[in-house]
Amino acid sequence: MADIIYNFTVPLTSGPDTGTLTGTLDLPFVNAGGSGTGAASSLVLTSFPAGFGTLSEGDIVTSWTDQVTDIFTVTAGAVTSFEFMAVTNGDPTVGDYFCINSTGGSAGSFGGWICPADLNELSKTSSIFGYNFGGANGVTFTAVSPAPEPSSISLLGFSGLLLLSLGLLRRYRQN
Fold first, then answer.
1. What residues contact 34, with CB distance under 8 A and at least 6 apart?
2. What gap in Å lies between CA 83 and CA 45, rounded to an integer?
3. Which of 49, 64, 129, 146 is the most buried (most CB within 10 A)?
4. Nearest to residue 110, comparing CAs of 130, 85, 129?
């Protein structure tokens, strides 16, 4: 099974730090065009509004100290439901907080922080944050074609490459 990588965009339309947040999401539990539910193996923030500065534990959110919730559902290749919440430094009042939630209920809580229904938020402190309450409509996921697996390339082998080369040479001579 090949990992499917998704690029995602979250418009942070409310709060003191508005702008666009982008990232990549690796969902290893589903094939291209397939369906399934599971955890992301990697969620990386690739850009966010400058007002956030740098994040205390870096841009790889799946490496943050506390992974509260990590559930994604894919239907026919499209991300259709998601609950993800992570916190840095073991305390969201002094660390960073990231939440995307398309469900009708809470995606979890940590300390005094809750990821309520339809919240998509990046927060650094109580004065540095941006969010939207768009739920599934507040995050856009775009599948990126997976790279061929090395095992499928090796199946071609030398003889397969030779036949492919001869076929291309023959086609070239006909033209």
1. 74, 76, 77
2. 16
3. 64
4. 85
| Contact present, 101 and 71 (Cβ < 8 Å) | no
Which parts of the chain are beta strand (E)? 4-12, 19-27, 36-38, 42-47, 66-75, 78-87, 97-101, 109-110, 113-114, 120-125, 128-132, 140-144
- Whether this prediction's pTM lies above 0.85 is answered by no
Opening angle at CA 60, ends 33 and 27, nearest 5: 15
Rounded CA separation 60/83 (Å)? 17
**Tokens (6 digits) for 172:** 């070239």
pLDDT digits (tens, 9 = 90+) for 11-58: 999 999 999 999 999 999 998 889 999 999 999 999 999 999 999 999
pLDDT number for residue 114: 87
Amino acid at 154: S
Q: What is the pLDDT of residues 113-160, one digit of tens each?
A: 889 999 999 999 888 999 999 999 999 999 996 644 444 444 444 444
- Position 147, amino acid: A
Stretch 49-75: mean pLDDT, rounded? 95
Euclidean distance between CA atoms 25 and 132, whole angstroms: 19
